[in-house]
């Protein structure tokens, strides 16, 4: 879903109507998603490690992501 919205944002930008706010949120989402995936990869195989669903944000998780410190989650998860 983020890829489709990014394509639409790119098309609008080329037509002179950039979605700057959306582009910033998409960049933040991708950064947080990468951080979450890194936590899951670091904990993979660790005894008692939580599942990916407990750590990784979903596509609509931006409101939750504002309150989640993924560094702290990593420290406690592994």
Model description:
This protein is mainly alpha-helical. The chain has one domain (2-77). It contains 5 helices and no strands. The chain has helices spanning 2-14, 20-43, 52-55, 62-65, 70-77. The longest helix is centred in the middle third of the chain and has 24 residues, at 20-43. The radius of gyration is 15 Å and the shape is elongated.
Q: Helical region count?
A: 5
Question: The biggest beta sheet, please?
Answer: none
Task: Please trace the helix and strand order, writing H or E for each element.
Answer: HHHHH
Total number of strands: 0
The span between the termini is: 30 Å
What structural class should be given to the helix and strand makeup? Answer: mainly alpha
What percentage of amino acids are in beta strands? Answer: under 5%
Helix content: 55-70%
Question: What is the mean pLDDT?
Answer: 76
Principal-axes shape call: elongated
What is the count of structural domains? 1
Unreliable sequence segments: none
What is the CA-based Rg, rounded?
A: 15 Å
């Amino acid at each position: 879903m983020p890829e489709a919205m990014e394509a639409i944002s790119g098309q609008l930008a080329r037509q002179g109507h950039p979605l700057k706010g959306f582009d910033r949120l998409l960049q933040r989402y991708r950064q947080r998603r990468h951080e979450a995936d890194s936590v899951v990869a670091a904990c993979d195989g660790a005894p008692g490690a939580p599942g990916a669903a407990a750590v990784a944000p979903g596509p609509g998780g931006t409101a939750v992501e504002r309150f989640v410190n993924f560094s702290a989650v990593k420290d406690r998860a592994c």
